[in-house]
Design goal:
mainly alpha; Ferritin; transmembrane; TspO/MBR-related_sf; TspO protein; membrane; TspO_MBR
Length: about 160
Protein backbone atom coordinates (compact mmCIF):
# COMPACT_ATOMS: atom_id res chain seq x y z
CA UNK A 1 0.00 0.00 0.00
CA UNK A 2 2.82 2.40 0.81
CA UNK A 3 4.34 2.00 -2.68
CA UNK A 4 0.95 2.54 -4.30
CA UNK A 5 0.47 5.74 -2.30
CA UNK A 6 3.92 7.00 -3.31
CA UNK A 7 3.21 6.19 -6.94
CA UNK A 8 -0.15 7.99 -6.93
CA UNK A 9 1.24 11.08 -5.22
CA UNK A 10 4.25 11.11 -7.54
CA UNK A 11 2.04 10.92 -10.62
CA UNK A 12 -0.40 13.49 -9.24
CA UNK A 13 2.16 16.25 -8.56
CA UNK A 14 3.14 16.86 -12.20
CA UNK A 15 -0.47 16.53 -13.35
CA UNK A 16 -1.48 19.24 -10.87
CA UNK A 17 1.28 21.51 -12.14
CA UNK A 18 0.12 20.84 -15.68
CA UNK A 19 -3.46 21.57 -14.68
CA UNK A 20 -2.49 24.93 -13.20
CA UNK A 21 -0.55 25.76 -16.36
CA UNK A 22 -3.43 24.71 -18.58
CA UNK A 23 -5.74 27.07 -16.69
CA UNK A 24 -3.70 29.95 -18.17
CA UNK A 25 -3.31 28.24 -21.53
CA UNK A 26 -6.88 27.35 -22.52
CA UNK A 27 -8.17 30.83 -23.33
CA UNK A 28 -5.05 31.94 -25.17
CA UNK A 29 -4.95 28.79 -27.30
CA UNK A 30 -8.36 29.76 -28.66
CA UNK A 31 -7.78 33.42 -29.48
CA UNK A 32 -4.21 34.70 -28.98
CA UNK A 33 -1.94 31.78 -29.90
CA UNK A 34 -3.57 30.92 -33.30
CA UNK A 35 -2.88 34.39 -34.71
CA UNK A 36 0.83 34.37 -33.84
CA UNK A 37 3.34 33.85 -36.62
CA UNK A 38 5.07 30.54 -35.92
CA UNK A 39 8.12 28.70 -37.21
CA UNK A 40 7.49 26.06 -39.87
CA UNK A 41 8.62 23.39 -37.38
CA UNK A 42 5.87 24.36 -34.96
CA UNK A 43 3.72 21.25 -34.42
CA UNK A 44 -0.07 21.42 -34.75
CA UNK A 45 -1.78 22.63 -31.58
CA UNK A 46 -3.49 19.28 -30.92
CA UNK A 47 -0.13 17.55 -30.31
CA UNK A 48 0.76 19.55 -27.19
CA UNK A 49 -1.85 17.97 -24.90
CA UNK A 50 -0.84 14.34 -25.48
CA UNK A 51 2.87 15.18 -25.39
CA UNK A 52 2.62 17.08 -22.11
CA UNK A 53 0.41 14.43 -20.53
CA UNK A 54 3.01 11.79 -21.42
CA UNK A 55 5.87 13.94 -20.16
CA UNK A 56 4.06 14.61 -16.86
CA UNK A 57 3.53 10.85 -16.41
CA UNK A 58 7.25 10.23 -17.05
CA UNK A 59 8.18 12.99 -14.57
CA UNK A 60 5.87 11.51 -11.97
CA UNK A 61 7.23 8.01 -12.40
CA UNK A 62 10.79 9.35 -12.19
CA UNK A 63 9.88 11.07 -8.92
CA UNK A 64 8.41 7.80 -7.67
CA UNK A 65 11.63 5.91 -8.45
CA UNK A 66 13.61 8.45 -6.43
CA UNK A 67 11.09 8.46 -3.58
CA UNK A 68 10.98 4.67 -3.22
CA UNK A 69 14.78 4.32 -3.33
CA UNK A 70 16.06 2.86 -0.07
CA UNK A 71 19.77 3.29 -0.64
CA UNK A 72 20.07 5.86 2.13
CA UNK A 73 21.30 8.54 -0.27
CA UNK A 74 20.20 12.07 0.52
CA UNK A 75 17.22 13.08 -1.60
CA UNK A 76 16.93 16.69 -0.48
CA UNK A 77 18.63 18.14 -3.57
CA UNK A 78 16.66 15.86 -5.89
CA UNK A 79 13.32 16.87 -4.36
CA UNK A 80 14.28 20.55 -4.37
CA UNK A 81 15.37 20.48 -8.00
CA UNK A 82 12.21 18.62 -8.98
CA UNK A 83 10.02 21.12 -7.14
CA UNK A 84 11.80 24.10 -8.66
CA UNK A 85 11.48 22.78 -12.20
CA UNK A 86 7.78 22.03 -11.62
CA UNK A 87 7.18 25.60 -10.45
CA UNK A 88 9.14 26.98 -13.42
CA UNK A 89 7.19 24.71 -15.77
CA UNK A 90 3.95 26.20 -14.47
CA UNK A 91 5.28 29.75 -14.59
CA UNK A 92 6.22 29.35 -18.25
CA UNK A 93 2.55 28.79 -19.14
CA UNK A 94 1.52 31.75 -17.03
CA UNK A 95 4.08 34.05 -18.65
CA UNK A 96 3.67 32.86 -22.24
CA UNK A 97 -0.07 32.23 -22.41
CA UNK A 98 -1.43 34.14 -19.43
CA UNK A 99 0.61 37.31 -19.87
CA UNK A 100 1.08 36.93 -23.65
CA UNK A 101 4.80 37.50 -23.21
CA UNK A 102 6.94 35.32 -25.51
CA UNK A 103 10.02 37.38 -24.56
CA UNK A 104 9.49 36.92 -20.84
CA UNK A 105 8.68 33.25 -21.36
CA UNK A 106 11.89 32.80 -23.35
CA UNK A 107 13.97 34.14 -20.47
CA UNK A 108 12.03 31.94 -18.05
CA UNK A 109 12.42 28.79 -20.17
CA UNK A 110 16.20 29.12 -19.96
CA UNK A 111 15.91 28.80 -16.18
CA UNK A 112 13.46 25.93 -16.62
CA UNK A 113 15.93 24.09 -18.84
CA UNK A 114 18.71 24.57 -16.26
CA UNK A 115 16.39 23.34 -13.50
CA UNK A 116 15.49 20.23 -15.51
CA UNK A 117 19.18 19.56 -16.06
CA UNK A 118 19.82 19.93 -12.32
CA UNK A 119 16.95 17.52 -11.63
CA UNK A 120 18.35 14.96 -14.06
CA UNK A 121 21.78 15.17 -12.42
CA UNK A 122 20.33 14.91 -8.91
CA UNK A 123 18.05 12.01 -9.90
CA UNK A 124 20.95 10.21 -11.62
CA UNK A 125 22.82 10.05 -8.31
CA UNK A 126 19.86 8.21 -6.77
CA UNK A 127 18.24 6.32 -9.66
CA UNK A 128 19.67 6.15 -13.16
CA UNK A 129 16.31 5.02 -14.65
CA UNK A 130 14.64 8.04 -13.03
CA UNK A 131 17.15 10.35 -14.68
CA UNK A 132 16.66 8.70 -18.07
CA UNK A 133 12.89 9.12 -17.78
CA UNK A 134 13.47 12.90 -17.81
CA UNK A 135 15.43 12.90 -21.08
CA UNK A 136 12.28 13.22 -23.26
CA UNK A 137 11.23 16.15 -21.06
CA UNK A 138 14.47 18.09 -21.44
CA UNK A 139 14.47 17.29 -25.17
CA UNK A 140 10.91 18.63 -25.59
CA UNK A 141 11.61 21.74 -23.50
CA UNK A 142 14.75 22.40 -25.59
CA UNK A 143 12.58 22.24 -28.71
CA UNK A 144 9.95 24.40 -27.00
CA UNK A 145 12.66 26.95 -26.19
CA UNK A 146 13.53 27.13 -29.89
CA UNK A 147 9.86 27.55 -30.82
CA UNK A 148 9.38 30.14 -28.06
CA UNK A 149 12.32 32.14 -29.37
CA UNK A 150 10.97 31.89 -32.93
CA UNK A 151 7.58 33.21 -31.85
CA UNK A 152 9.28 36.06 -29.99
CA UNK A 153 11.34 37.02 -33.04
CA UNK A 154 8.54 36.58 -35.60
CA UNK A 155 6.00 38.57 -33.62
Amino acid sequence: MKKTFKLLISLLIPQLAGGIGSFFTVGSVKDWYPVLVKHSLNPPAWIFGPVWTTLFILMGYALYLVWKDNSGKSKRLAYSAFGIQMVLNTFWSIIFFGLHSPGGAFIEIIFLLLAILATIIAFYKISKPAAWLLVPYITWVSFAMYLNYSIYVLN
